[in-house]
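Design job #97: recover the sequence.
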């Protein structure tokens, strides 16, 4: 599918790094280096504004390599980009390690998955259909 994008700093656009990747790596668009201290969170700009078709969303997800090697996560993971959002896409990174983490412009900080979603209308009822699970949850089926 084709998605319209405004790329104000003419950065490298989000891209699939392998042929069948689900996520496109998103890059930081910065005027100066950002440092995340331990447990600090910052909104990191990408310089991108997009026009998703109706019925689609974009999910902003962490990169596992940054998470594993540097403890970098996304506070609101997965972030949701609504189809009607026209502002700049930003990524709310958090440093869950004990060391400072530096982000420079062009660094791949997160990944974006574009997905379809349903738009729901509610039908209020008094009873729901019966299932084997019923109300069981939170470990109801055991742990091993
Ligand atoms: O990681 C994110 C999450 C959201 N957004 C933008 C796009 C999204 O469409 C908008 C609103 O996000 P969300 O609905 O998650 O935030 P909210 O706290 O509910 O704010 P709002 O009242 O504006 O919906 O902010 C981002 O740029 N990055
Ligand atoms: Mg919202």
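Job complete. Output follows.
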């Amino acid at each position: 599918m084709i998605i319209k994008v405004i790329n104000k700093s003419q950065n490298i656009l989000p891209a699939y790094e392998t042929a069948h990747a689900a996520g496109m790596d998103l890059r930081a668009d910065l005027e100066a280096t950002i440092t995340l201290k331990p447990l600090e969170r910052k909104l990191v700009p990408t310089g991108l504004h997009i026009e998703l078709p109706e019925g689609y969303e974009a999910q902003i997800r962490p990169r596992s390599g940054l998470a594993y090697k540097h403890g970098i996560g996304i506070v609101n993971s997965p972030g949701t980009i609504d189809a009607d959002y026209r502002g700049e896409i930003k990524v709310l990174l958090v440093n869950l390690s004990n060391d400072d983490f530096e982000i420079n412009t062009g660094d791949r900080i997160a990944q974006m998955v574009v997905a379809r979603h349903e738009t729901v209308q509610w039908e209020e009822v008094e009873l729901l259909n019966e299932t084997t699970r019923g109300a069981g949850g939170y470990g109801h089926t055991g742990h091993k």
